[in-house]
Amino acid sequence: xxxxxxxxxxxxxxxxxxxxxxxxxxxxxxxxxxxxxxxxxxxxxxxxxxxxxxxxxxxxxxxxxxxxxxxxxxxxxxxxxxxxxxxxxxxxxxxxxxxxxxxxxxxxxxxxxxxxxxxxxxxxxxxxxxxxxxxxxxxxxxxxxxxxxxxxxxxxxxxxxxxxxxxxxxxxxxxxxxxxxxxxxxxxxxxxxxxxxxxxxxxxxxxxxxxxxxxxxxxxxxxxxxxxxxxxxxxxxxxxxxxxxxxxxxxxxxxxxxxxxxxxxxxxxxxxxxxxxxxxxxxxxxxxxxxxxxxxxxxxxxxxxxxxxxxxxxxxxxxxxxxxxxxxxxxxxxxxxxxxxxxxxxxxxxxxxxxxxxxxxxxxxxxxxxxxxxxxxxxxxxxxxxxxxxxxxxxxxxxxxxxxxxxxxxxxxxxxxxxxxxxxxxxxxxxxxxxxxxxxxxxxxxxxxxxxxxxxxxxxxxxxxxx
Length: 467
Ligand SMILES: O=c1ccn([C@@H]2O[C@H](COP(=O)(O)OP(=O)(O)O[C@H]3O[C@H](CO)[C@@H](O)[C@H](O)[C@H]3O)[C@@H](O)[C@H]2O)c(=O)[nH]1
Description:
Elements: E1 9-16, H1 21-35, E2 42-51, H2 52-60, E3 71-75, H3 92-102, H4 109-122, E4 126-132, H5 137-144, E5 149-153, H6 157-164, H7 166-171, E6 186-190, E7 193-195, H8 206-226, E8 229-232, H9 239-246, E9 251-254, H10 278-284, E10 291-295, H11 305-318, E11 322-325, H12 338-345, E12 348-351, H13 356-360, E13 365-370, H14 374-382, E14 387-389, H15 396-407, E15 410-412, H16 418-430, H17 434-446, H18 448-466
Parallel strand pairs: 1-2, 1-4, 2-3, 4-5, 5-8, 8-9, 10-11, 10-13, 11-12, 13-14, 14-15
Antiparallel strand pairs: 6-7
This protein binds uridine-5'-diphosphate-glucose.
């Protein structure tokens, strides 16, 4: 009998995530999805390009458990060679500036990409770049190196729709053409209903808002003129087709929600900071469904001392068992002696950084007070935990609308007073239907059928690019 051997073609995938945890995580998951494509004629070698400061940080974090098939390659910083490494860029605009510099023709990224291409060429490999849209300047690096480049949208398609609608919002007079400031209150979007306050560039002072609006205009311009394909980390959504007809370029391929099938029990998640496992032991001592888990992600600015103080006081007054992720910059709002009292009463835990997936997957956790970052909400759905939503910035308002109005698996809090929290917890824990909705949502979005659909879309992308 003749045994047919399939000739596998090698593909190096140069992936450029935006250097923030909420973006690096889904890029890792995307790399894993490529590695797991079934019946594929290609073997993939994903290479994640990380600014040096981030590469250093990830390498130094002991709890990281990176798939050895995924390489992490540092891109040197402009000032490398000095004795002291330059400080990490501190905010959105500083990161944007650093990434623009790094991927400009005079920057360091192009040399790194050319090196990888040269090494791959020796092995007869194809090379393709996948670039997070928030680092749209890196598209130019790929083009200058003659590589096919695809975009990656790390969050919900809905947030992309809001950005892609900018020209239309301006043309119809709904937002100011230069600042992006809304001129009306309601957006022509009904599923879910959104207000102009939900627009993702409305963060911070008026000048920060118009700078972000400018950032999105630049991103949109590059993506519509330079990209053929955009891989989107979204839930299955009927709106895609409708959206697709209106916006031909780039072609949208939905490949999410990206999350390994067995993530709850493995630590296959990359983290930038050491996770504190003590909260898991404490959770083991708590009753099922009794604990409130509170975390506001990795990237939003502190909500301010009065709000931290209000939440801390309410939690103490309500005697709710809780795990609260609170970094050093947020702790200043804690009332005097709070942590000491907490440790004496054993009623809750404040930790600097938690193993979030394991916490959410714990049977003692009843609900999740979240800022509605995209990764956090996908993880909550994966662990079937209802949400108390407190969106703070960017896409979080649109994400919150999805959770509260469309999926109905959470409620929005307007503050952290006693009534807000008591009513909120009663609504999500006392709603007999919410657990059924979460179960269905999890099955529809992360079950086998959804995974097959996402993987088919990824295969279609591979065929379009390499055949
Ligand atoms: O103690 C913690 C707290 C969080 N996490 C993880 O950190 C990630 C947080 O991601 P996300 O929920 O998306 O929040 P941010 O880090 O704030 O993400 C930014 O990036 C996201 C993706 O673009 C956006 O949706 C958010 O609005 C934006 O704030 C998740 O994977 C969590 O599991 C931990 O592991 N331990």
